């Protein structure tokens, strides 16, 4: 099995971390409906139960040793609100019932998570963590140098999507994976060191689609769209490819 193998049809993957296997998802955004109500005045019925059932079904399907969330476990920035808190408590209860620990690589929305739930989940450094030969980051900040020594780096934050058009001009957005080699030069420049001083694993970057269906995303193949991460797209090889959730290989993402 590849170090990071997407689960067919799902915005999730199984990562081989050496001594254990992890089910990995990104951008869960618990309580997003509460956030949208406050931020935009949009009233939506909560999908909290459906999100939890999807994740639990993936645990049943893949039997992981742990679940890793690549940031933005909650939606509203700051301390968890009531809608988020209820959803997270129910999710942690469900994972506890399966004896499946949860590791959170904190994202830009997760400021209050460690204080609120630190006794129930593992929260890593914001610069990410390396488990075996796989590194995990959210992507809103530059990765810790130790993460760059991994063979594969997984990140979220971007919520990548591709815009697909048919022969009559109709279009739709589809969630997508991005996979490609990282370039060393932007990281050496950021850390102010020579390239040879980095413990560089020549990693493949895997950018995860958002787990949450209501969180929008970056159309990576639309001209004028900007990436959110400070190291993308400069640090991503030009031949990085996009894939649909069903495994369809679209080719180089810039030419989709």
From TrEMBL:
Span of domain Calcineurin-like phosphoesterase: 23-147
A Pfam family reported for this protein in Swiss-Prot or TrEMBL: Metallophos
Molecular function per GO: hydrolase activity
CDD domains: MPP_PF1019
InterPro entries cross-referenced by the UniProt entry: Calcineurin-like_PHP, Metallo-depent_PP-like, Pesterase_MJ0037-like
Protein's name in the database: Putative phosphoesterase
Organism from which the protein derives: Haloplanus vescus
Organism lineage string: Archaea, Methanobacteriati, Methanobacteriota, Stenosarchaea group, Halobacteria
